[in-house]
Design a protein that fits this description.
Number of strands of chain A: 20
GO molecular function (chains A, B): dipeptidase activity; metal ion binding; metallopeptidase activity
Protein name (chains A, B): Carnosine dipeptidase 1
Strand content of chain A: 15-25%
Family (chains A, B): Belongs to the peptidase M20A family.
Keywords (chains A, B): Hydrolase, Metal-binding, Metalloprotease, Phosphoprotein, Protease
Radius of gyration of chain A: 24 Å
CATH class of the largest domain in chain A: Alpha Beta
Oligomer: homodimer
Structural class of chain A: alpha+beta
Helix content of chain A: 25-40%
Mean pLDDT of chain A: 95
Number of domains of chain A: 2
Number of helices of chain A: 11
CATH topology of the largest domain in chain A: Aminopeptidase
Strand order of the largest sheet of chain A: 1-4-8-5-9-19
Shape of chain A: globular
Largest sheet of chain A: 6 strands, mixed
């Protein structure tokens, strides 16, 4: 049985500076095509975040270096280690001359860290070809919540990113010669941004919580079982005090409730020192992390209406413009899906424990893209430990995680084949 | 009678990059020292703002060029033209072989545009020597409020510049992995800044208006007489609508009432594009233009107390620090001083009209420095028209203003000598 491997051309992209560059091709591979077996598709990526030794790496970031059972190198955990572990699992069956219990498909891209440019178009194009026989999609591009206990990830938050621009004129003013007679754009903007949340982090936009999925008893129980030492978490985050005091509240507000963060202001005085300027045009930036079953277009309307109302109350002569510049839906899986049960059983076999059932508070668009376009179950099955340092200096994957992770994927093939029947 | 001219060494200054540069010396000159005559001291500066033709100059900024009765060149109105006019006025008496009716002192610096570095120390040092015999100080470093009608300036606003820093930790957070469980510094800061003014520009800091000088009938009448076309002013400012609708209200809120402007935020996301960051430490910057009889140390206390109160209401676990990084007092002259009456009479003689009695909403520290240290009357007697474009491209002084201004200074010498007796 030989694999079939294709390189899919994705065309080229134009950079902001006008330069045109080819997009790295996507690898589409398949191994086995037997009608009786389920087809499992693995998604991975081989591109990495930038790294130079000068950033504070203790080893050459581009030479994999083992120190005390840790394999250091850029991409070790994000995402080359998991890709190799998947290949190891497939190879194991061949080495043992055993029949693979599943048909395998693999999609590997080289643009994940740059926003998976053109991937959605490719998935749409291949929906009825490469993906037509796929039953399950597996992504292994996150981390566990702990150092030793494996996890399954069943949801990620979406994100609606907004700009709110307030303009008096295109030029700045001198605060000595104009201070006192203007509707100052910064005063308007600060009031608008200040109307978004209360001091307890609760979002004040009317209706924003209407579509948030109610908390069931079943879901509630998941949080209690999770392995998280709150005090250790707080210390390693270097935060004096969180908004909430219990593990359950903390996790729920990171995963299953929306949050609103103000990122900054463009166009005002942002440098060190003093400058007596009245900025003439300022752009506030904030975003809302969305959870099931919030919808980006409903959220956009709610934010627009709220800010229009607050602005109208000010009787300002300035102009206000609100835009949603990014709208990414949340993703949630049904943890009763066959492949979630299969993954749990595989974890039990390899690690001898139940997994933490967790979500990820940040936004990983590919899960939702696969779910929406291919309409099959997506599983996030991470291999790396919480301290792997993805995107940071001295990124690593533990030798133990890498080897047990390879076993986990092989065990998963067996379990998913069994449950699929 | 020969002038006595000295160059006063001011030592050297260290630039932010560590470089040490000598400060240009200050010229201290005197002409005449007769006990029966009043001594008038003129302050001027010869340094200028940067200028290159590429900024949009229609002529070489460093070659004085006359076009249609306008003398274009960097420094033409700020402040070389007025300095020359003063010299012209002195020269006129010599050319006519007439006795100067006043003793003259002149102080000319070369660091005004850089904040008059070391000038205050010099004035203190020379208080009982060079300045001991001075009766009146004249500054001609502003502009009229109109194109044709001369003005006397009798006040400038002070400035208290504040930073308010809110810190959760020294590093930023990712809004996906921390959004929802933090007291976010930007939310605190936006609430703090939003508590400073209402939407009508009124300052909400308790007690801030307590020391503002009450408006007298006499002062009120000054505003009505001033030559200002509000519609033209609004159009040339390119502002859709001011906070007030009458000339009197506009001028009072620029000159005799305090104003508060928010300048910007340091440490947040300030670039174009989107970034999903929760800034860990942010510094808000705002300043209050002060008017008689507000005091910087009282204002500092009021701002501190107000922000502490607002912050305490939020129960935030972040750290807040408020600092007044600059405190400059307002300056106001007694317009019944001899030299104000002398200047009015001189204007009547040369221009055939009463002057606009105006103030300047911005802060000119030297007037207050002279008033406080030498304790003599300070007069601001501008020569340039409102459209001279100081600090801008195509700065100019009108030939007419320059010549009539020279006459005005000579007439002022005669009037001040007469009133002083």
């Amino acid at each position: 049985m030989d694999p079939n491997v294709d390189l899919e051309d994705l065309g080229s992209q134009q950079l902001p500076d006008g330069q045109t560059l080819p997009i790295p091709p996507v690898i589409l591979a398949e191994l086995g095509n037997e009608p009786g077996k389920p087809t499992v598709c693995f998604y991975g990526h081989l591109d990495v975040q930038p790294a130079t030794q000068a950033d504070g790496w203790l080893t050459d970031p581009y030479t994999l270096t083992e120190v005390d059972g840790k394999l250091y190198g850029r991409g070790a955990t994000d995402n080359k280690g998991p890709v190799l572990a998947w290949i190891n699992a497939m190879s194991a069956f061949r080495a043992l001359e055993e029949d693979l219990p599943v048909n395998i498909k693999v999609i590997i891209e080289g643009m994940e860290e740059a926003g998976s440019v053109a991937l959605e178009e490719l998935v749409k194009r291949e929906k009825d070809r490469f993906f037509s026989s796929v039953d399950y999609i597996v992504i292994s591009d996150n981390l566990w919540l702990s150092q030793r206990r494996p996890a399954l990830i069943y949801g990620t938050r979406g994100n609606s990113y907004f700009t709110v621009e307030v303009t008096c004129r295109d030029q700045d003013f001198h605060s000595g010669t104009f201070g006192g007679i203007l509707h100052e754009p910064m005063a308007d903007l600060v009031a608008l941004l200040g109307s978004l949340t209360d001091s307890a982090g609760h979002i004040l936009i009317p209706g924003i919580y209407d579509d948030v999925a109610p908390l069931t008893e079943e879901e509630k129980e998941l949080y209690g079982a999770i392995d998280l030492d709150l005090e250790e978490y707080r210390n390693s985050s270097r935060v004096k005090k969180f908004l909430f005091n219990t593990k359950e509240e903390i996790l729920m507000h990171l995963w299953r409730y929306p949050s609103l963060s103000i990122h900054g202001i463009e166009g005002a005085f942002d440098e060190p020192g003093t400058k007596t300027v009245i900025p003439g045009r300022v752009i506030g930036k904030f975003s809302i992390r969305l959870v099931p079953h919030m919808n980006t277009s409903v959220v956009e309307k709610q934010v627009q209406q709220h800010l229009q109302y607050i602005f109208s109350q000010r009787n300002s002569s300035n102009q206000m413009d609100v835009s949603m510049v990014l709208g990414l839906h949340p993703w949630i899986a049904d943890i009763k899906d066959h492949q979630y049960l299969a993954a749990k059983r595989a974890i039990k076999t390899v690690f001898g424990t139940e997994p933490d059932m967790i979500r990820d508070g940040s936004t990983i668009p590919i899960a939702k893209i696969f779910q929406d376009i291919i309409q099959k179950s997506v599983l996030m099955l991470p291999l790396g430990a919480v301290d792997d340092g993805e995107h940071s200096q001295n990124e690593k994957i533990n030798r133990w995680n890498y080897i047990e992770g390879s076993k986990l994927f092989a065990a998963f093939f067996l379990e998913v084949a069994q449950l699929h029947e």
